[in-house]
Design brief:
Number of helices: 5
Distance between the termini: 19 Å
Structural class: alpha/beta
Shape: globular
Order of helices and strands: EHEHEHEHEH
Strand content: 15-25%
Number of strands: 5
Oligomer: single chain
Radius of gyration: 14 Å
Largest sheet: 5 strands, parallel
Helix content: 40-55%
């Protein structure tokens, strides 16, 4: 089981679509403890500075970007289980993605898909995958092979 209170998401921009907000709220109810910090979108340089200011010193930074590792849900669950004693912050960039500087300081990078998604949908997908990873680790029937 994941220690959800050790997981955090930093996301650039606000959720504007009610159906996405409802989906995120649904998964956050199912795996309480995960927090999401929304940062104002601007240019890549300013976003990079905001992200750095919001990363806590003991957190492992995992960036979400298209060139990151492509994991299966099961391998994500195993990786999170291996890192369960650490505080983890996932970062989702804005419309222009993440700066090279943020990618350089990351513990690792992860891709949700080879496809590119709007940051709002990426946030919903990440929250669902964190719930799915927790379900896999608990042996819940939510994830079916």
């Amino acid at each position: 089981m994941l220690n959800a209170s050790r997981l955090r998401i930093i996301a650039i921009g606000k959720i504007r679509k009610p159906w996405i907000e409802e989906g995120i709220k649904l998964y956050l109810k199912r795996i309480p403890g995960i927090t999401i910090t929304e940062l104002r979108d601007s240019n890549a340089s300013q976003e990079s500075e905001l992200i750095k200011k919001n990363i806590q010193s003991k957190e492992l930074l995992i960036t979400l970007c298209e060139e990151g590792l492509q994991l299966t849900s099961i391998s994500l669950a195993k990786q999170l289980q291996n890192l369960n004693s650490h505080r983890i912050v996932f970062v989702i960039g804005g419309a222009d993605g993440l700066s090279p500087e943020i990618k350089r300081i990351a513990y690792t990078s992860m891709s949700l898909s080879p496809l590119t998604f709007p940051h709002e949908i990426a946030r919903l997908l990440l929250v669902e995958q964190l719930y799915r990873a927790n379900s896999i680790l608990q042996g819940s029937p939510y994830h079916r092979n």
